[in-house]
Each structure stands twice: as structure tokens, then as C-alpha cells.
Amino acid sequence: MPPTAPTTPARRAVVAFLAAAAVLGATAVPAVASPHGPAAGHAAHGQGGYGDAARLGYQKTVAITVTKRVFEHGDTAVVDRYVRPDYIQHNPTAADGAAGLKALATSIHQQFPDARYNVKRVISQGDLVMLHSNVVLVPGTKGAAVIDIFRFQGGKIAEHWDVIQNVPDATASGNDMFSTLSSPQVSQPLDHRLTQANEALVVKAFDELIVHKDLTALDRYWDPGYLQHNTQMQSGVPAAKVGLGGYFASAPQLTVTPKRIIAEGDLVAIHSDYVNYPGDRGTAILDLFRVRNGKIVEHWDVIQNVPETSANGNGMF
User: Fold this and answer.
1) Phi, psi (deg, nearest 5) at residue 309
2) Are residues 314 and 89 in contact, defined by beta-carbon separation less than 8 angstroms?
3) DSSP structural state of residue 83
4) 12, 136, 166, 287 from 163: Cα distances, Å
């Protein structure tokens, strides 16, 4: 969905610091399998979903365990246990490697000992895990919305991407950035047997609407009253037509390139590079869709402008 307005210098400073923290920390989420060691049968992305519950559960738990122990407790031993030494980092303010993650863990925990990484939903498919979280460095503040993607190799975390956006005081729809409002109001993925069908539907819908800018796709794939968590858009198809129509008109050279897709049950995430015009550094956006009865009924997103420089040289994608 469309990027937010350009950030101010103060907001960029906050986002940059939160970006350095985004590889870390978590709070309680629905129970999954305990991490006792490398899981068997690490399938390539696209082979996950129904039938791979044990492996996917293991990956979820490792991702949550590492982020919680590192971010909230400054625990570096968990990095040795579950993170590959040659860990590849795409957060633009953090260094590559397990050693860089350990240094970051110590620094963040010392500066913000009461920080919390409140995980709202987690999905896994193939070798990828996505965490959608509210990161609060200082208790009592709204913090930031963060989506982390972890790639696993040999039972350990091998690579990490993230997208970060400050939580505003208010949104256009009145819906916060994290809650589940469509029925049933549960955060965990449902209907695992429909993973492939839901993924195919969302990929087609996204391609027609966002990549090819066909507003009529909203009538084909979206529920008329779908619930919106984007901070600048109201709920419902009519509002989406107005909002997206205006965005497409203002950025006629817009190109959107999906980079990775993660689907589990009724939740489908698409991580994309939005470039508004030639030469634009672009915007990293993670769109998360919920599908019920063959229609998209709810949408969350996290949006971050791609910075000028990167501490690791890997780019955000």
C-alpha cells in the first residue's frame, strides 16, 4: 500500500535507531514447539505450510527466542546457539555477522533496559519466518511497528530483513496498526489447508492492483468493507479506490517489485520495493493481508524509506 509522507530529520533519527534494534526481542505469542535443536527437513521457500508444522513451529520459536533474549535481556549466548556466524544483515544501520548482532544486543540493552518487543503475529513458510511487532523502547510510549523476516539455514538464522515505522497518535481509519478486527478476532494464522490457495489469490490481487495499477482489482479480490490498518487510509473498497487512485496519479512512474512472499493459513505477507520515479532510492513496504472465504478482509502494513547509506552494504532487499 502507498508510502507515507517524507520523514522529518527527527523522525529519521528515531527510525534509524529503531532499525538498529529491529533484529531483536519479543514478548509472548501463541505457543509453538520448543527449540531443542536443528529441525529435520529444511525445505526451500514455497514448500512450507500444511504438513510442515513441526519444522515451521521450530523456526517460529527460534526467531522469537532469539529476539526476546537478545533485545530484552542482552543475552549474547543465544546468538551462538541459534544464529549462523556468517549471518547476513539487511537492516541498513546494523553490521553483518553474529558478532555484530552481539554488539548490538549489548548496546541496546544497556541504553533501554525496559524495552519490550511485543510480537502481535508470527507466520512461517519454507525457510522464512515473519514477526509483526510493536517495539517499545521506553515504557509508556507508542513505539514503532516492526516487521522482521528471518531466513533459516541448517536450523539456524542465516539472514534478516526488516521494515520499521513509528506508530502515530491517530490513524485515518481509527484502527490501530496491530489489532485483528475481522472475525474471528485471533492473531494466529487459521485454515492451514488453504495456504496455497490464499497465497495465489493475494499474489494475483497484488499484481493486478499494485504492480499494474488496476483499481478494478479491488472489486474482484477485496471484501467491500475490508478493514484497513494503514495509517493514512480509511477502511473499505471505496476509500481504497480514492486513496490508491490519488497515489498512482501522483506517481505515474511508480514501479513496485515484490521481493519475497510468506503465507501461512489465512495470512499472506508481501515484502516489496516501491520506487516512485527513476533515481528514487525507494521505499521498503511489507503488506500483510488476511483472506477469509476467498476475499481479502483485512490489511496491515509497515513502511520505511530506503536510506542513503547502509552499514552492511547488502541493501534492504
Assistant:
1) -125, 165
2) yes
3) E
4) 13, 15, 11, 10
3-state helix, strand, coil in the chain (%, to 5): 30, 30, 40
Nearest to residue 71, comparing CAs of 131, 111, 13? 111
**pTM, rounded to two decimals:** 0.85
Strand order in the sheet with 128-136: 83-89, 156-166, 144-153, 128-136, 116-125
How far apart, in Å, do the first and last CA atoms of the chain sit? Answer: 17
Tell me the mean pLDDT in the region 79-102. Answer: 94
What 3-state class would DSSP assign to 68? helix
The three-state (H, E, C) secondary structure of 22-56, written as one string: CCCCCCCCCCCCCCCCCCCCCCCCCCCCCCCHHHH
Average pLDDT, integer, range 179-191: 97
Q: How far apart are CA 311 and CA 140, in angstroms?
A: 30
Strands (DSSP E) found in the chain: 83-89, 116-125, 128-136, 144-153, 156-166, 222-228, 255-264, 267-275, 283-292, 295-305
**Residue 2 pLDDT class (50, 70, 90 cuts):** low
**Quick check: helix, strand or coil at residue 190?**
coil
Q: Are 287 and 146 in contact (CB under 8 A)?
A: no
Q: Which residues contact 105 (CB under 8 A, 6 or more apart)?
A: 24, 70, 71, 74, 75, 76, 79
- The DSSP letter of residue 239 is H
Mean pLDDT of the chain: 87
The average pLDDT across 286-294 equals 98
Q: How far apart are CA 213 and CA 36, in angstroms?
A: 46
Residue 133: predicted pLDDT: 97
Give CA angle at 309 (305, 314), nearest 5°.
90
Q: Cα separation of 308 and 144, whole Å?
A: 21
CB atoms within 10 A of CB 200: 12
Classify 166 as helix, strand or coil: strand
